[in-house]
Write a structure and sequence with these properties.
The chain is 0% helix and 27% strand. The protein is mostly beta strands. A five-stranded mixed beta sheet has the order 1-3-8-5-6, with no helix packed on it.
Length: 164
């Protein structure tokens, strides 16, 4: 039986190709066991005051509510620019965010959500809301915009078994 890891959403989402400003309230809700293509080419650089996102490139924001452990990973699978993904425990439209609790800037290098957490990082708490910010790296400058494909996790929980 599959258990929901992330907030249930209707269908799969792909970041649109239209220009729009992001807000915490308008963050795209991630669904479990889904593929996404995050396109920052037509978004805005709205999180400019957030330390790790202090690049002049555009940002895309996602949200989910953590389910029960084990949660798995969020894995970037392809990119056409110098990207960075940050898992943050809260969101402020004023642009002043708390430090990220997980990060990756490498295709194939996952953000771990399961326990035990990476050394020095907090556990992901069931029922808590989290945000996933996708942006360009500071080294990429203002032109560090493009697409990042990523996959959300799905845990499988064994409820019962029999031996014949």
């Amino acid at each position: 039986m599959k258990r929901s890891v992330l907030a249930v959403a209707v269908g799969m989402f792909s970041c649109g190709s239209f220009a729009h400003a992001q807000t915490c309230a308008s963050a795209t809700t991630l669904a479990r066991d889904s593929s996404y293509v995050s396109d920052t080419t037509t978004t805005t650089n709205w999180m400019f005051q957030f330390g790790p996102l202090a690049s002049p490139s555009n940002d895309m924001l996602y949200t989910f509510i953590a389910g029960p452990q084990p949660l798995g990973t969020i894995t970037p699978t392809a990119s056409n620019y110098l990207f960075a993904m940050y898992l943050i425990p809260s969101c402020s439209d004023g642009g002043s965010e708390v430090p990220p609790i997980r990060a990756t800037a490498t295709v194939g290098s996952a953000i771990t959500l399961s326990d035990p957490p990476p050394p020095g990082q907090p556990s992901i708490m069931e029922g808590a809301r989290y945000y996933l910010a996708v942006t360009g790296t500071a080294a990429g400058g203002a032109t560090a915009n493009g697409t990042v494909a990523f996959q959300t996790p799905f845990p499988v929980t064994l409820l019962t078994f029999t031996v014949d």
